[in-house]
Amino acid sequence: MSAEDSLSRAEELLARLERTRAELERLSQANDAEKALDVLAELSELSKAIEGELQNAKRVAETDAEP
Q1: pLDDT tens per residue, range 31-40
Q2: Contact present, 17 and 46 (Cβ < 8 Å)
Q3: Residues 38-63: pLDDT tens digits?
Q4: Do residues 53 and 7 touch, judged by C-beta distance below 8 A?
């Protein structure tokens, strides 16, 4: 996977994270604590996936930059 592929995947995950964050906001206003906890767990997983993609992109970029 190229650095560009990883960055594209990270961007897709960021968009999903934003949609999920908006859902959490809606749930907090509806006082739905149980569902909000599920959404928080999903946000955590998305954050980890984004971090992984960014680390992969960095690793690939550094490897490509080596002479």
Answers
A1: 988 999 999 9
A2: yes
A3: 999 999 999 999 999 999 999 999 98
A4: yes
- Please state, in angstroms and rounded to a whole number, the distance separating the CA atoms of residues 65 and 46: 28
The dihedral region occupied by 31, where left means phi > 0, alpha psi between -120 and 50, and beta the remainder, is left
Residues 10, 50: contact at Cβ < 8 Å? Answer: yes
Chain-centroid distance, C-alpha 17: 5
Q: What is the CA radius of gyration of the chain?
A: 16
DSSP conformation class of 47? H
pTM of the model: 0.85
